[in-house]
């Protein structure tokens, strides 16, 4: 185990965030069929095997997986795309052998420094030699006590950078396909990233095409957002959308709020048909809407 600068660890603790809004692709039914076909082809061509991992979705929209560490467990770990590290609590790190139980603790969050998980198993997936940082993050304790029981850590960048990841929120499954990617030493890069130049980020505040509908409140079950009104003669009306429909997805993107729908539609081209998934009564429909130029 390497000693670690406490100041750097504190900065990492601040940086480890829980991202509620995950900008990941959710597979539509047609995309799922294409993915299954691609997986079959990959198996024939001896391409790295795709692994499917189930997850639990907390009321806070955090994804929790059950994993074995060095053959011990299972441990409940948050899958967090915003975490620059993979983190383990002291108890999980000690019981799994990721760190020496005699390693000294600092006063701040009982930090122990860096450790390594020789084997992580989650669902159908197995990962080797995963670097971890060991300390008791207060957000984990709070999240576990509010929603789901004890949480043992966070799976972050050092894990998911190894894979192309697809998340299907409806099925509550993540699909991992190995990629050839070299993980940088985040501890060495951290000071440079914190002190480096800041650049402005472009944000699109409105869709690039006119749709002609108004959205209401999210559905109670979290599956979509209610269509409050559809303008007569608008692209939405011509595509078959009606007031009262539940909007479930746009162009394969899951939409649970008006903000989700805006984000899904903001880069779609005017004049290009887009698949829209709705629920009307007990029936799920897929409609084609062609946004137009306009304001």
Order of helices and strands: HHEEEEEHEEHEHEEHEEHEEHEE
Report Rg: 22 Å
How many DSSP-defined strands?
Answer: 16
Proportion of helical residues: 10-25%
Mean pLDDT: 76
Tell me about this structure.
The protein has 295 residues and is α+β, with helices and mostly antiparallel strands. Helix content is 24%, strand content 31%. It has helices at 6-15, 29-44, 90-96, 138-148, 157-160, 186-195, 235-238, 258-265, and strands at 51-54, 56-57, 63-69, 72-79, 87-88, 113-122, 125-134, 153-155, 163-168, 173-178, 213-218, 225-230, 246-250, 253-254, 274-280, 283-289. The strands form three sheets. A six-stranded mixed β-barrel has the order 3-4-8-5-7-6. Strands 11, 12, 13, 14, 15 and 16 form a six-stranded antiparallel sheet that branches. A three-stranded antiparallel sheet has the order 1-10-9, with no helix packed on it. A hairpin with a 4-residue loop joins strand 9 and strand 10. It is elongated.
Quickly list its features:
single chain, elongated, six-stranded antiparallel β-sheet, 24% helix, 295 residues, six-stranded mixed beta barrel
